[in-house]
Design a protein that fits this description.
DNA-directed DNA polymerase activity; 5 strands; DNA binding; Nucleotidyltransferase, domain 5; 42% helix; DNA polymerase-3 subunit alpha; 3'-5' exonuclease activity; alpha/beta
C-alpha cells in the first residue's frame, strides 16, 4: 500500500514561547501519491521587532516582514490549504503548537493528525550521532538549500519521510503493519490552545501614554497585542521607568 498523503510544514518564529512569540514565516508542501502537488510559502509581519538572533539564524530581516500580511489573515489561507491532511514536520510538536494556537487566536480550528520525522528517524537510525534536519538530509541525500527557512525545511522533511518510507518498502497499511512500520503512521497530538483575549482599550491608551511620557519608541504594533502581552509590556515599563505622573 502506498505511503500516506500529507502536508509537510515548517515555521520560523521570533522565539520558542507559543503564547508570547510570533510566527514570521510559514512554508508547506502538499504531497499526494509521493509527489508535491501544491506549495505554500509566506512571510508574516509579526507586529514586533525580530530579535537579532533570529535574523542571524534564518536570514529573515525586519525589512523582509514589514508590510506583509498579519498572522490572522495568513492563517485563513493556511487552514484552507492543509484541509484534513496529516501535518508532517521535523519535531512537528513545535510547529503544530504554534499553528494551532494562532489558528485559535483567529477563531479557526486545526485538528489534523501529525507525523514526526524526528521520531521516525530515531527508530530507524539509532546509530546516527545527530538527527537534526540538516544532518539527516545529508545522510539520506535530500536537498536542503536554505536551512532555517520554512519552505525549504518543510520540503526537506517531506522528502526525508518519503526516503525513509521507501526504505520500509513504502508500507502504510497501519492496521496490519509491523511495529517498525507503525512509526510512520499519523497520530493525534493533543495541544490545547491557551485562551488569549485582545488588548483592551484602557490598556492600549495606558501603554501608549507610558511610551509617550517616557519617550520610548514603540517597537511593536499595539493593535496586535493580547491582553496578557500588553500587561507584560506595561509592567516592564513601570518597573524600569516608573509612572512619572
Amino acid at each position: 500500500m502506498k505511503v500516506c498523503d500529507f502536508v509537510a510544514v515548517d515555521i520560523e518564529t521570533t522565539g520558542v514561547a507559543v503564547t508570547r512569540d510570533k510566527i514570521i514565516e510559514i512554508g508547506a508542501v502538499k504531497i499526494v501519491d509521493g509527489k508535491v502537488v501544491e506549495e505554500f510559502s509566506e512571510l508574516i509581519d509579526p507586529g514586533v521587532l525580530i530579535p537579532p538572533l533570529i535574523t542571524n539564524l534564518t536570514g529573515i530581516t525586519q525589512k523582509d516582514v514589514d508590510g506583509k500580511r498579519n498572522i490572522n489573515d495568513v492563517m485563513v489561507d493556511f487552514v484552507e490549504f492543509i484541509e484534513d491532511y496529516p501535518l508532517l514536520g521535523h519535531n512537528i510538536t513545535f510547529d503544530y503548537s504554534f499553528l494551532k494556537q494562532n489558528a485559535a487566536n483567529a477563531s479557526l480550528i486545526i485538528d489534523n493528525l501529525v507525523i514526526d520525522t524526528v521520531k521516525i528517524s530515531r527508530k530507524r537510525y539509532p546509530f546516527l550521532e545527530s538527527r537534526r534536519l540538516n544532518h539527516l538530509s545529508k545522510y539520506l541525500g535530500v536537498e536542503l538549500e536554505n536551512h532555517h527557512r520554512a519552505f525549504d525545511d518543510a520540503k526537506a522533511a517531506g522528502m526525508i519521510y518519503l526516503k525513509m518510507a521507501d526504505e520500509q518498502n513504502g508500507l502504510c497499511d497501519y492496521q496490519s503493519a509491523s511495529s517498525d512500520e507503525k512509526v510512520f503512521a499519523p497520530y493525534v497530538y493533543a495541544y490545547k490552545p491557551k485562551k488569549q483575549s485582545p488588548i483592551t482599550n484602557a490598556q492600549k491608551k495606558y501603554l501608549i501614554d507610558l511610551c509617550n511620557i517616557h519617550e520610548l519608541e514603540m517597537d511593536f504594533d499595539v493593535e496586535t497585542l493580547s491582553k496578557s502581552e500588553a500587561s507584560r509590556k506595561i509592567d516592564k515599563i513601570l518597573s524600569q521607568y516608573g509612572r512619572k505622573w
